[in-house]
Write a structure and sequence with these properties.
The protein is α+β, with helices and mostly antiparallel strands. It has three helices and eight strands, in the order αββββαββββα. The model has no long low-confidence stretch (mean pLDDT 95). The protein is globular.
Length: 159
């Protein structure tokens, strides 16, 4: 994921200290029920689509923008399926971030899936029963997006 300019500006003043940031994930389905994935340039692994909202950008608008920027697919956000505070991440340059992820179920409405930026090596549609190897993050989000369950959130905070 490319670092947005506004975060570079914050980092210039904040150094490597923890930044608490919004993150958006888009689980996109086509009319055949397939899910859209991208193979990332940084890890070379298949992943769900996501990114960081620009200041003032609405979360659903960010989901739609990120999907188009990365895959050339046009979509609409249908509903929030998951909200989760992720564990802090320390990057190789020593920057520390923690993301509050909001995941949207989205429906493709146009465009042809293709690599549309320098963050992806490949982009493809997959049947949910034939997904490539994905991390737990992606698997949970796809599962939640496929269900009609209420928005998922971590209930351990209430115990």
């Amino acid at each position: 994921m490319a670092t947005p300019d506004f975060i570079r500006t914050i980092r210039a003043a904040a150094g490597h200290q923890l930044l608490w940031l919004p993150g958006i994930t888009a689980i996109v389905f086509d009319d055949d029920g397939r899910v859209l994935l991208g193979r990332r340039t940084d890890t070379r692994k298949w992943s769900v689509i996501g990114g960081i909202p620009e200041p003032g950008e609405q979360p659903a608008a960010c989901a739609v923008r990120e999907v188009f920027e990365e895959t050339a697919v046009r979509c609409v956000a249908e509903r929030v399926v998951l909200v989760q505070a992720l564990d802090p991440v320390t990057y190789p340059n020593a920057d520390v971030c923690q993301f509050m992820d909001i995941t949207f179920r989205c429906r493709a409405v146009g465009g042809e899936a293709r690599v549309n930026d320098d963050e992806s090596l490949d982009v493809a549609w997959f049947d949910p029963d034939a997904l490539p190897e994905l991390n737990e993050f992606g698997v949970l989000r796809i599962k939640q997006a496929m269900s009609d369950a209420p928005t998922w959130f971590d209930t351990t905070a209430f115990s």
